[in-house]
Amino acid sequence: MRISKIQLLIVSSLMLSLFACGADKTVTETNTSESTKPTMTKETSAQQFERIKQLASKAPIADRRESSRTYHGKELKDSYFWLKDQDYPNTDDEDVLNYLKVENAYYHEFRDPNQKFADKIFEEFKSRTDETEESVPYIENGYEYRSAYKEGNEYPIHSRKNLETGEEKVFLDENALAEGKDYFVIGDFDISPDNRYIAYSFDTAGDERYQVKVQDLQTGKYLDDVLNDAKGELLFSKDGKSLVYTLLEKERWYAKHIKIHTIGEAQEKDVTLYEEKDEGFFIGFGLTSDKEYFMVVSSQGEVQESYVAPADFSTPLVQLVSRDAGFTQDIDHAHGHFYIVANDTHKNGRLVKVSDKEPAYKNWETIQAGSDEVYLLDLQTFNDFIAIKSRDIGLDKIHIRSYDNSSYSIKFPEELFRASIDTNPEFTQDFIRVSYESMITPDTVFDYSLAEKRLTTRKVQKIPAGYDKSQYVTERVMAPARDGVLIPVSIVYKKGFKKDGSQPMWLYGYGAYAATISPSFSTLRLSALDRGFSYAIAHVRGGSMMSYQWYLDGKLKKRTNTFNDFVDVANHLVKENYVAAGNISASGRSAGGELMGAVTIQAPDLWRSINLGVPFVDVLNTMLDSTLPLTPPEWKEWGNPIESAEDYELIQSYSPYDQIEKREYPPMFVSGGLNDPRVTYWEPAKWTAKMRHMKTDDNLLVMRINMGAGHFSNSGRYGRLKDYAEEYAFMFLAHGIEQ
Questions:
Q1: Distance separating alpha carbons of residues 112 and 612, to the nearest angstrom
Q2: Catalytic annotation on 676?
Q3: Which of 128, 156, 517, 679 maximizes the CB count within 10 A of its CB?
Q4: Each residue's pLDDT tens digit, 226-260
Q5: Residue 136: inside a domain, yes or no?
Q6: pTM for the predicted model, two decimal places
Q7: Residue 102 falls within a domain, yes or no?
């Protein structure tokens, strides 16, 4: 569905010794060029042992408070169940807060002696950041829009130029709005069709519960309208007299109502446009590209239900596809027809069209049949053509299709890259804007001319510190999984990298919700590549790199494929001499944090360090708690252990928290946010507490809980860079790299 606004330490010898011991991992020099050779600290085993004891003895030990519940005749014991505040989402239990504060203080005992190293890495990040970055302007409804940073600013400033008068004005300064706030995020903004008003949503806690304000752009004055408990996305009605938003329930991060707010009225008088009665479904809304139709989608995993209505709401919502049909849809509209990518007849999707006068399923006409080789991902209609994003056997493509059904693909300069349909708000235009990057090519914006079939570069990511693409190499490797399936791996490294197993590797993964980690560019990653690391993405099942079936083969009863794939990729890279076992640092966030927990349990000796970012590691307990707002919708992804004994046993068999056993583990960096509604704070907290009790090594385990943020940590661009710098420092130190 075309819903653009829904779907985005100088090291102390003490610290080094903590990393280097425990699992009998020795520090060795990486075999790199002199310019990137890391500096190591050398100590005797006796010295290391003495230094380890100094900090390891200070590690916080959480209380064990026995708790027991019974499901399907089986007892589930949990000594750290108490770390979930029973008043959640109000976290005010003193014991819980005190424990988190003690863990943060312990984290500072690691960070503070190594702050100079973290600061050095931060300065590297900052030196590659364009402090006055500007977006490529786009045109919409008579104005040219752009966003830009000023030097030193944490947030962008948004402005627009009247195309008739040439007058340019700032209409949204996020820095001014964020002043005095520890956390600030704009969820969405929309400008009324008459260009008079702006409505924007913002979050100051990280809990993704937004407030909405409306401002008169002519006078600069705010209207009395203030909406609370909004989900984030906003849309003015066609006449500009009302505002569409999604209302969150008071006590839960769950949305069941799409509301219409009349400008000038109290929020209590808002009218319900759509009500979702099944808590297992997420809801969202948006406009078709021609702005003729308003759309509502309700989704749960592999199932979506869609509704449409004229954009002026002259008639009520009409159901276009029922959830009972059991498939997903991506919908747009042009010239009297709905164009739909649907995976009803083939899991990779087919392209259909149907008259908006008689849009019943029986009238759908196939334009492009489903294919095992072509996975249809996205579409956008324009006045003269349709743009379609696909992934063909794991490689991104953007196709241009005319309304007479002729079609061709845009040719890009590399073979391994990420490409996507960029911001194209105008329905009538003779080009399409696309974004493009690879693991060695900085983020680039192209305008593709249909008449000339030529790419024009509009912007290339500026890297002030300098970047020479020719000094880096990217490649794709196919790694055999234990069941014989070949797993794609995207790799990047600096020239001079030796495939003799001597250099360190950073291996990343996610693997859930059909989300694909694309082979994209990162200026931050250069700090690792320039220190001799290779960086690899394991495109494991559970994502959808190779097809929609790739996703299905990593969920529910096939969930363990995701974890096995990651371990098998690592073993293959060891076999091929990209790296040696025990010299790989692995990382992942959220569901990727679950992956990190699982592979830590399955193959601890492979890893030099593990970074578990906001990790979904307490899978069984979370899926057993139907009061959590995100649990019912997740049952289609993981299973329902409340109703199914089989699901209970399967989830328990791989849930990382439940699988911790007494043995040695690699060093770990764990992070979380107190206000996180997606992966609640107690998941990383319980993992850390239980791991401390069970692990038999002296390797460093630290946890950083942001007490004023949520799933996405710090909100400002520099705040986030500082967080990342600390995580990089941890990883580098694990490899004995101290500068």
A1: 21
A2: yes
A3: 679
A4: 999 999 899 999 999 999 999 998 877 789 999 99
A5: no
A6: 0.89
A7: yes
